[in-house]
Amino acid sequence: EAQVTQNPRYLITVTGKKLTVTCSQNMNHEYMSWYRQDPGLGLRQIYYSMNVEVTDKGDVPEGYKVSRKEKRNFPLILESPSPNQTSLYFCASSLGPDLREDTGELFFGEGSRLTVL
Amino acid sequence: KNEVEQSPQNLTAQEGEFITINCSYSVGISALHWLQQHPGGGIVSLFMLSSGKKKHGRLIATINIQEKHSSLHITASHPRDSAVYICAVSMGNELQVKTNFGNEKLTFGTGTRLTIIP
Predict the structure, then answer these.
(1) Cβ B107–A59 below 8 Å, yes or no?
(2) Peptide bond between residue B118 and the one before it cis (omega within 30 degrees of 0)
(3) B-chain residues within 8 Å CB-CB of A105?
(4) CB A67 within 8 A of CB A12
(5) Closest residue by Cα to residue B61 from A74, A33, A63, B70
(6) Whole-angstrom Cα distance, residue B53 to residue B62?
(7) What residues of chain B lie within 8 A of the CB of A44, using their CB?
(8) Do B106 and A100 touch (CB under 8 A)?
(9) Spatial contact of B23 and B33, defined as CB atoms under 8 Å apart
(10) For residue A102, what is the nearest residue in chain B, using CA coordinates?
(11) What is the pLDDT of residues B65-96, one digit of tens each?
(12) CB contact under 8 A, A48 and B88
């Protein structure tokens, strides 16, 4: 089954304790991206990756790191989490940006709810 | 001012009604997405548009690039359509549209909460 898998789905942690949220897709997609969703602010893009070893900042990259060493995985790293990073996080992937092939459909993971105390 | 504005923010309708949700944006784009977020939180892609109109079942999405506006229509609405509908744009320009390049950075509207009453 084609899917994007995020782990953990729920996490409560404390300020400053490094954590990683994993994201994996089994569709051989080139494009992957991370978003956070907050009440009243909607979804905002954190980082995205167009392919292996190619990453770029979205609108709210501060406090986050990513890596894309393999095509299927795109982990989100919070080196020193703070309470303002409490949020619902989504990973998504798509085949790529070629509009001719209509490949831009985004496939989302189920979300990871993170609470930083 | 948000670069992507959706209206209405909330919409309640009776089952069977024709629904229209609007999305306006203020910058050049290469593509526009319509997403559906279920009450449980999962997000599903409905459409990606760079021009014209697309139809899938009871859902129709249109975009007017000159007016910087898109609409999502639901015909014969059903309680299972109750969800939050989110518009997202891929910032870009006419060159990217001509070269068929989209996605990359996405900016989202804050969503329209739709409730369909049986």
Answers:
(1) yes
(2) no
(3) 45, 48
(4) no
(5) B70
(6) 4
(7) 108
(8) no
(9) no
(10) B48
(11) 889 999 999 999 999 999 999 999 987 655 55
(12) no
